[in-house]
Amino acid sequence: MALSRRDLAIAYSYAGGLDEAQRYAREALEARGQLPAQVLAPAHKVLGDIAARRGESAVAINEYKAALAAASERYRPVVLLSMTNAQIAAGDAATARATLDSSGAAHNPMLAALFLRINGNLLLIEHKPQAALEAFCSIVSKVGQGDPSYQNLWAYEGMGRAWLALGDQTRARAAWLQAIRYSEAVRARFRSDEFKTGLFADTQNVFEEAIALVMQQGDYELAWSLSEKSRSRALLDVVRNRVAGGVDTRQLNGAAPSLKEVRGALQPNEAIVEFHLLTREMIVWVVRQDGLQGKTLPITRRDMTEAVSDFRNAIVRGRPQALTYGAKLDALLIKPLNLRPGERLIIVPNGALHYLPFQALVNESGFLIQRHPIAIEPSASIAVQLLHRQQRVAGDLVAFGNPRITPIYDLPGAEDEVLGIAPLFTKSKTFVEVQATRKAFIDNAPNSRILHVATHTQADTIDPLHSRMLFAPLSQPADGPDVLLARDIFNLKFGSVALVTLSACDTGLGSIDRGDEIMGFTRAFFYAGVSAMMVSMWPVADESTVILMRTFYGALASGQEAIDAVRSAQLAVLANHRFAHPFYWAPFDLIGGWRLTIAQ
């Protein structure tokens, strides 16, 4: 039991599930087991690693000390290297030097390259950039254990920081670009999909260093290109070997298009607004048919994450302070961009901004949705790929709502919603209550043009391929739901489906991975062939959602493009004084093909 909890702690730590890793590490410590050296030391080290990743250096150091007390002689050098990193992060150069020297890692072939990298980091905070540069350079030429490309990746990353400390921006830029090239080579060879995903998250630091420097140099196009290259790669790594054969790995392939290609895909009244959160600042680009502008906004990643959380929580709880938070964020994120009146905004969020309802930002002229039509995209490259899919489709609806499970799962508003929108289409099939089964979904959903799903969903933030959609079981009375996983969507063919609406609670949420952002049902449907999606960002209210969906589909049926239909729907709910708070009208985002229309 102790060993299993230790291993779960390690696995969750690699997966980025820090809360779960922390829980299992503590349970391992409580269980202890009969082999304390194999349980206590690794468990304390996991707790130290978690604290270090959260920026809690003092906590990390204490946990590493506890790990050392139980560690075997073979494991001690690994713990001491981690402790050195924590001491470097705390700015304690003298203690870090003593710890590193006592590790003995310099003479261990398995740890020699890591020792050199940590030594280089330590030399930098000791204000010895030339010596640090030499340490990083020695990694490149060193012959030893491990993958040379992996070692070279971090060697060049360190060289970039050393060159910057020496005042040579040109060589720093070249080193970081070389590190990025090595990161691609490393990913191509690793067999473990989860490790490649984790590695790509780690290498975001290299992208961020390069983007910040290139922006400082005024090369906005290269900075934008690097930002695009840093996105939309982890999805394929998660999918490969995790779903059935025959999945088209060319779908949403993450290939970064040129700026010329992206500009050529835009219409004169459209602008892509693309954000990239860095540790100490935020970068934003505005891409239009007639050019590119870039700006650096003065807010840290941590402050932005807190601001988004405050705004979102105020909306979900129906508090009037939501308008105050929305006004502050509008002034910070939108006002500096000098957007053109009424132009369509194709927003590419990053990090915590994926949880931000941009439509609810507000200034003296009203909410952002009142000033601009809005769509959300995972990246500019995916936006362009989705535009190449079908954009004009027949009015053929397949809808599922209120599956009969048990009373606690009842969604009577969802059933009204489905039955209310069906008459708007020339051809429709609806499945409600006992008919809304997993089998009915698999048999009918891939053949639709418009797919509407109003059921319960559950996001799995650790393994997004296990996010669940709940349906009625075939046998009634039911004792629980029949489950469709996100991974099942990848195995279905949705190439004929243009629009999917997931009208349930939190369907747009999932795991936020640096470089690929939110992964869950949204990415699964896009990967399977869908062109556009409507997803919710918080629990939805029945009555207002019925109004929103009827207006949305009515606008689509009348010939409006999807981005304008969403705006019409949100404005219709906003105009009702009972639903004027953003909680009621702002939960849904349009993601993907914003120009989609229904043929008349």
In short:
It comes from Caballeronia novacaledonica. With 600 residues, the protein is an alpha/beta fold.
Describe the 3D structure.
The protein has 600 residues and is of the alpha/beta class. It has 3 domains: 1-103, Serine Threonine Protein Phosphatase 5, Tetratricopeptide repeat (Alpha Horseshoe), CATH 1.25.40; 266-372, Nucleotidyltransferase, domain 5, CATH 3.30.420; 388-598, Rossmann fold (3-Layer(aba) Sandwich), CATH 3.40.50. The protein contains 26 helices and 20 strands. Strands 10-9-11-15-18-19 form a 6-stranded mixed β-sheet, sandwiched between helices. It is globular and about 75 Å long. 52% of the residues are buried. It comes from Caballeronia novacaledonica. This is CHAT domain-containing protein.
Properties at a glance:
six-stranded mixed β-sheet, Serine Threonine Protein Phosphatase 5, Tetratricopeptide repeat, globular, 3 domains, alpha/beta, five-stranded mixed β-sheet, Nucleotidyltransferase, domain 5, 600 residues, Rossmann fold
Classify the beta-strand content into a percent band: 5-15%
**What is the number of E strands?**
20
The CATH class of the largest domain, by name, is: Alpha Beta
Put simply, the count of helices is: 26
CA-to-CA gap between the ends? 63 Å
Organism: Caballeronia novacaledonica
Protein name: CHAT domain-containing protein
Show the helix and strand layout:
Blueprint: H1 2-15, H2 18-31, H3 36-53, H4 57-70, H5 76-89, H6 93-103, H7 112-125, H8 129-141, H9 148-165, H10 169-189, H11 193-202, H12 204-216, H13 220-229, H14 234-239, H15 259-265, E1 270-277, E2 282-288, E3 291-297, H16 301-316, H17 321-333, E4 344-348, E5 362-363, E6 366-367, H18 368-371, E7 374-376, H19 380-387, E8 392-393, E9 396-403, H20 412-421, E10 427-433, H21 438-444, E11 450-454, E12 457-458, E13 468-471, E14 482-485, H22 486-490, E15 499-502, E16 511-513, E17 517-519, H23 521-528, E18 532-536, H24 542-557, H25 562-574, H26 582-585, E19 588-592, E20 597-598
Parallel strand pairs: 1-4, 4-7, 8-20, 9-10, 9-11, 11-15, 15-18
Antiparallel strand pairs: 1-2, 2-3, 5-6, 12-13, 13-14, 16-17, 18-19
Helix pairs in contact: 1-2, 1-3, 2-3, 3-4, 3-5, 4-5, 5-6, 5-7, 6-7, 7-8, 7-9, 8-9, 9-10, 10-12, 12-13, 16-17, 20-24, 24-25
